[in-house]
Amino acid sequence: MKKWIPLFCIAIALLACRETEKTKESDALEKIKAAGELVLGLDDSFPPMGFRNTENEIVGFDIDLAKEVASRLGVTLRIQPISWDAKEQELNTGKIDCIWNGMSVDSSRAAAMSLSAPYLQNRMVFVVKDSAIQKVSMLAGKKIAVQNGSTAQKLLEASDAGKSASALIPFDDNLTALMDLEKGGVESVFLDEVVADYLIAAYAKSLRVLAEEGMNEEEYAIGFRKKDLKLRDAVDSVLNTMRTDGTFAEISVKWFGK
């Protein structure tokens, strides 16, 4: 009997822990609906996902998606620019309700946040100006730019291309990095293909993506606080409905042409 009592107590404790985990789920969705707004955190220099247009308005593919999701949840969208390096802190301190800005899925982010279902596929690519550079291997001994705090930075640092480069130069945003590439400050920029295609078409026509030299196909997801499961699931549900009724496709065609 004495042997069974401790085991019984352990079983009760484990059940209590599981019940506590269930009760840890937040009421963020209810609070957002009561407040009437969803606060989206983003790096406002990440076209075409979220960026400032010539009228200084924050626009983009993710912004259009989020506005529609917020509308269907019965709230308005408030867009809050943040430091990308401090995005998890901004989220966990309650300054924003979600991170929705072409955020790539990786293990560290999955551990730190509750991630939505992936909503966009992407890959990382090298952009160059010099016509003599035809392969990634030809970037050995050259300077490569990358956005600071991005998954591209982590991937580049661990890659053969990154290790063989003369220097990896961090920039606050991809557009500034591409402008430096045009001026000859660096020989390449490593970034998301969807961003590269948009920026080259819009701002930097003398640059090009190294064909068939992409790395690490990845997916974008929306980041929520670990306990905000109801909010995450509500957003996922709306996005699924938007896929079914064609709204998602319309927004995709608007920004990507396909």
TrEMBL record:
Main localization (coarse): other
Gene3D superfamilies xref list: Periplasmic binding protein-like II
Subcellular location: Cell envelope
Chain coiled-coil ranges: none
SMART domains: PBPb
Keyword Transit peptide: no
Keywords: Signal
Annotated ranges, domain Solute-binding protein family 3/N-terminal: 37-258
CC annotations in GO: cell envelope
Pfam family, one: SBP_bac_3
InterPro entries: SBP_3_CS, Solute-binding_3/MltF_N
PANTHER family in UniProt: ABC TRANSPORTER EXTRACELLULAR-BINDING PROTEIN YCKB-RELATED, MEMBRANE-BOUND LYTIC MUREIN TRANSGLYCOSYLASE F
Protein family per UniProt: Belongs to the bacterial solute-binding protein 3 family.
Protein name in the entry: Polar amino acid transport system substrate-binding protein
Species annotation: Fibrobacter intestinalis
